[in-house]
Design a protein that fits this description.
The protein is α+β, with helices and mostly antiparallel strands. Helices cover about 15% and strands about 30% of the residues. It contains 2 helices and 6 strands, in the order E-E-H-H-E-E-E-E. Strands 1-2-3-4-5-6 form a 6-stranded mixed beta sheet.
Length: about 140
């Protein structure tokens, strides 16, 4: 995965036609995923602590992807289910309020959906404080 420059907080936008509440998002230059953070505390801006979390998480995305695949492999027989080939991250959501990072991944061999792995990350200074806590599957 190429090194991605963290986007500026001003680069985050809410989807057109929305009002207060939806996530703020950006497609970082050179990345194949969308980075999302929640709305701020009533200030019509991205949540600043979640932005700081996102900046810290970006260099760890390859590690998070590996941990997510390992976690999913403990719940699903990936070979038997036909999960082969390249795995791409398509969406990353950082929410410091909930101390959660959500990573959505798609497999090259799967045409019907994507897996999301939710991580709890209490102390951003240590990888050991990050662990997967949930899974979900989304069909297209």
């Amino acid at each position: 995965m190429p090194e991605i420059r963290p986007p500026a907080m001003d680069d985050f936008q809410q989807p057109p036609g929305t009002w207060y509440g939806p996530d703020w998002e950006v497609d970082p230059d050179g990345a194949a995923y969308t980075l999302r953070i929640p709305d701020g505390d009533g200030d019509w801006m991205p949540h600043a602590p979640s932005y700081e979390m996102a900046v810290r998480v970006l260099p760890e995305l390859e590690w998070l992807k590996e941990k997510g695949i390992e976690y999913l492999g403990g719940k699903v027989d990936l070979d038997r289910a036909g999960y082969r080939g390249t795995v791409e991250i398509v969406d990353v959501h950082c929410d410091q309020r909930r101390q959660r990072i959500t990573v959505e991944m798609e497999w090259e061999s799967q045409l019907y959906g994507a897996w999301t792995v939710v991580f709890s990350w209490r102390d951003l200074s240590e990888r050991n404080s990050c662990w997967p806590v949930g899974l979900s599957f989304r069909t297209r």
